[in-house]
Amino acid sequence: MAVNKKKRVHKWAFPLGLLMAILAAIGVVTIIVAGINVGGKIIYNSKKYDDYNKMLVPVVMNDPGTFDDLKKANQSQLIDISIWSILKSDLTPDKYEYGEGGMLIPEADVTESFKKLFGTENLPVHATVEGYGYEFTYDATKKIYTIPLTGIVPTYTPKVVKTEKKSGSKILTVAYLAGDQWAQDAQGNMIAPQADKFMKITLRKSDAGYYISAIQATSNPETATTIAQTQNANNLQTTAPSTDGALEQTSASAPVAVVS
């Protein structure tokens, strides 16, 4: 006598499948960041650069406008960054509910993400966010964001090349690497493109930790160093009158340190 076995369906099958689809859609970001992190370990041998790169992925990926005051920043871009920060965290299948349009993220969670990234002095202005080829739809009645299953290639990926401390702040010099210009060698290693531009991202200290307070354009730190060294070498060739009237060459005991 044949026995019909009822196929067992796990209660997390649909959420897990949908989450995997979302992660696959944005997986290119993870692959690129992994490549950056490997490079960071080789070049800098410091975990802090890896941590900065990971934190900055959602910050730079859609190339937000510059600002030196959070009150002057584009609020829609700050919301976009806050949502992407959630998507790039270690989500579990049962973290959020799902609807026909995709994953449903409560406004409260976006607010919390916003505060971690941009501090508590300015509250987020919740609204629908339009990105490059996608839209995070905000429902003011339900206080929910709907996250669609949309694959994207980030405009930029970050690579921190310099850090400095100044008056209770950390200033990161970040290379912006084009997201669609990455390649792989024969061994499957990620090959980074040349930086399109460099930005200074200021992390200001608060009671809860550090938050992003400014994003400003800056020059290539290597170029600035080369110019400084050239100027210093030229200065070494400058002559000046000595006390006895003879010409003598001026000298410097150490190179001039230039902070861009």
Describe this structure as you would to a colleague.
The structure is a single chain. This protein is an alpha+beta fold. It is built from 6 helices and 13 strands. It has helices at about 15-25, 25-45, 45-60, 75-85, 105-120, 220-235; strands at about 95-100, 100-105, 130, 135-140, 145, 155-165, 170-180, 185, 190, 195-205, 210-220, 240, 245-250. The strands form 4 sheets. Strands 1-2-5-4-3 form a 5-stranded antiparallel β-sheet. The chain has a 4-stranded antiparallel β-sheet with strand order 6-7-10-11. α3 (about 45-60) crosses α4 (about 75-85). The longest helix is centred in the first third of the chain and has 17 residues, at about 25-45. The chain is globular and about 50 Å long. The termini are far apart.
Terminal CA distance reads 82 Å
Largest sheet: 5 strands, antiparallel
Low-confidence stretches: 5-10, 35-45, 224-260
Number of strands: 13
Helix content: 25-40%
Strand content: 25-35%
Count of DSSP helices?
6
Mean pLDDT: 76
Computed structural class: alpha+beta
Rg, nearest Å: 24 Å
Global outline:
globular
Which features does this protein show?
260 residues, globular, alpha+beta, five-stranded antiparallel β-sheet, 28% strand
